[in-house]
Amino acid sequence: METVVFTDPETGEVAEFLVEEETELNGNKYLLVSEELDGEYAAYILKEVVTEDDEILYEMLEDDVEFQALAKVFSELVDEETDIEY
Description:
The chain is an alpha+beta fold.
């Protein structure tokens, strides 16, 4: 399974996420990623951002409307055994 490394811009903390699914919406690429925390799994939606230097970065999706729309899309794309709560 593919992984992506995410660095929190505020704390500098680095996390490695498993890429569960990806999709494009309105010309933007999004990743549904997960990590294991104390035996539980947490999932996040990352948005791909291309810098002026053509560097690809991912940022946490914070817009509530955009998040709700993508959570619905990803819930339809993942397998039936995966339960996405949003």
